[in-house]
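User: Thanks for the earlier help. One more: ComF family protein. Can you show the sequence and predicted structure together?

Assistant: Of course, both are below.
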Amino acid sequence: MLRSWLADFVGLVFPRLCPACREPLARGEAHLCTSCRAELPYTDFHRLPPEANPLGRRFWGKLPVRHALSYLQFVRQGRVQRLLHGLKYGGQRDVGTALGRLYGAELAAAGLAADFDLIVPVPLHPRKLAKRGFNQAEVFAEGLSAGLALPWAPALRRTAHTDTQTKKNRAERWDNVATVFEAADASAVAGRRVLLVDDVLTTGATLEACGAALLAAGALEISIATIACA
């Protein structure tokens, strides 16, 4: 009783805010408020046949991808941008894990867990990892692992530090990352169907480079999942 009263008092003085809309979370709400859970712009690409998925078309002729999946549609100045900003720059790693659990549960309910053997996050360079404190793709992979009941592993590494991709066009993004990824342990991915994950898919250049490195290490098949797509 006392603990509940103290929790209510602390919540009144220092309310927990929904990272998507910045409104106070009600009791029982975790990570996202009920309104945002209902109104976020979900893509539902996992409900489409692979050949009808518009996201998959971005990789045609570039990388053989079985499933191209993204949980949310990125909208500038919207809730998804606030979620991603809090994750990447606000230290809200639990947001990435929570989104991964939610999306993993949806993918599992759609029967897609059987199509993957291993979840692999896009790596950060050690310099950027030290600055940020965690890899946002890894915390998303952790959540997906729980939701899909599949293992995840940091099976890729970045061999060089690169400039930010934010203001580059597609050709510049590809040139920036084309040769900077390699398998950290080829035996971990050889013969396995890999679900490669990142936070945002824009041009797909980083995911293409990572997918190519996984295939070169012997991965049997590549699928892709991100928190959001632009």
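User: Great, one quick takeaway?

Assistant: The radius of gyration is 18 Å.
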